[in-house]
Amino acid sequence: MAADELLPEPLPADPLPIFATWFSDARARNVQPNPDAMVVATVGENSAPSARVVLCKRLVPDQGFIVFFTNYESRKGRELAAHPRAAAVFHWDTMHRQVRLEGPVVLSPAPESDQYFASRAFESRVGAWASSQSEPLASRAALVEQVKSVRERLGLVQATEGTVPRPPHWGGVRLWIDTIELWAEGAGRIHDRARWQRTLTRKDDFTFSAGTWTGTRLNP
To answer: Can you tell me the distance from the alpha carbon of 174 to that of 158, in angstroms, rounded to the nearest whole number?
Structure first.
């Protein structure tokens, strides 16, 4: 990796513009399999960790949060409700970059969830009603039957498009970033790695006020 693709020296006071640039680059280059993909880790019963891949649908660098969407009654939804903090990792292998995030989570405001839900494909909107995410399922046929039942209930038996309201148990999650680590691959495995931390203070149901970032380089 060229020197200009490593982290700046000295480190910037605010790391989020770098994250925003890397995220934008990944999307612009259409990094495969999906530039928005990230692993989100939560904590469940008995402090047991669990992780899964989700899609980051929004990054707001000036405030410092990302947004993903999920079924609030799923395993991740239940774990976040009980322990409202998460960690996330983006790894863009072909770009030789990685971003790690940590911070508290809150649910998105309803209009944010409504707007994104309305933008989803028709079948995906129907599926959000049909799937009791993470719950046991007798068979694939049972799931197909659940989709059919939802279509009947919503009056969409033969439809390929139409208005589907957002389920009350489905919506956005905001992960507010209080810790971020940026990693850039270096020659000979002498990678460039740095971590920043800040204090967040809850303002309301959806937002935090943020303190000043403190950053340091780390051994790779």
So the answer is: 35
The pLDDT tens digits for 132-164 are 999 999 999 999 999 999 999 999 988 789 899
Q: In sequence order, which residues have a C-beta less than 8 Å from that of residue 156 and are 6 or more positions away?
A: 126, 150, 162, 164
CA distance 107 to 16: 21
Q: What is the pLDDT of residue 164?
A: 95
Task: Identify residue 34 by its one-letter amino acid code.
Answer: N
The angle that helices 140-153 and 122-130 make with each other, rounded to 10 degrees, is 110
The one catalytic residue in 140, 189, 193, 198 is 189
Q: With a cut of 90, say whether residue 1 has pLDDT above it.
A: no
Any catalytic annotation for residue 189? yes
**pLDDT tens profile 169-189:** 999 999 999 999 999 999 999
Is residue 124 helix, strand or coil? helix
- Domain that residue 44 falls in: 3-113+168-218
- CATH code assigned at 197: 2.30.110.10
Contact present, 49 and 43 (Cβ < 8 Å): yes
pLDDT in tens, 53-79: 999 999 999 999 999 999 999 999 999
Helix H, strand E, coil C: the string for 197-217 is ECCEEECCCCCEEECCCEEEE
